[in-house]
Design brief:
9-stranded mixed sheet, 4-stranded mixed sheet, 10 helices, 33% helix, globular
Length: 325
Amino acid sequence: MNVRPRPRVLTLGETMGLVRAGETGPLRAGASARITIGGAETNVAIGLSRLGVGALWLGRVGDDAIGEAVLAALRAEDVELAAEVDAERPTGLMVKESRVPGASRVTYYRSGSAASAMSPELLRPELFEGIELRHLTGITPALSRTSADLAHQAAVTARQHGVRVSLDVNYRSALWSVDEAREGLQRLLPLVDVVFGGHGELSLLCDRTGRHPVAGDSALLASLADAGPREVVLKRGDAGAASHRDGAYEEAAAFPVEPVDTVGAGDAFVAGYLAAALEDRSPVERLRQANACGALACLNTGDWEGTPTRRDLSAFLDGADPVVR
């Protein structure tokens, strides 16, 4: 009998229903579609769970069919829930279409959603019992003023409980401007132990005076580390990844794959990295595992469905025959 691992990571954020077109081309009346779920924080939680790391999700959904689908899908992936159900506001929804092969467009319907009404009242001291790491993204503080207060208080409370904090920038231009994001995320940086982002996202955290140099990856990561995070991780897609930890800069090459869909790959990357960090593996090993998880996630059209299990990951890293006989 499988025993669910004790939660070691607490995630917080909005998870929505996802309507995904079943064929390439514009979404039209009568076209086939699949209903699933998606959300950066729960994508990471699922990724961690599949790698054997217990994860707990804190969030809010509406009292509707989409909200029920969100909770059921997460339970099926062995993610523990600390979710509230809002009887007045709906669960958010996103629609994903692939107008040309290999490229996706996502439209969000999240204004006034149940998650946008999240506030620090969601936090309870018992949520941090046994938790070793608290994962946030830059999406949650962009949802509303109360959600921003929640994200900040979650980081403060984690620090008070001796829990590490990770932050994936995950900038969404539809939710806030560059200046708003910079101000909101700089507020979190001193409370964060590890921060993830692409080059543009990490550069976004620079202040207007140019105090943080952005010309070179090594200089950018080192400068951001001066703002508080012990670890700064740069996601470079098919160019691999780099990190700055305790004064040391490391790089790891990407794994070449032919991507089907890159949406969700960054979340799988984060899950792989955090799982390796919780095992206290070296910076290069963390990057290598993260790159492998991101590569495998690209081989599926879902936001999280292609996230690897521990067995999938081991076979990929060991170069095993992909055909099981």
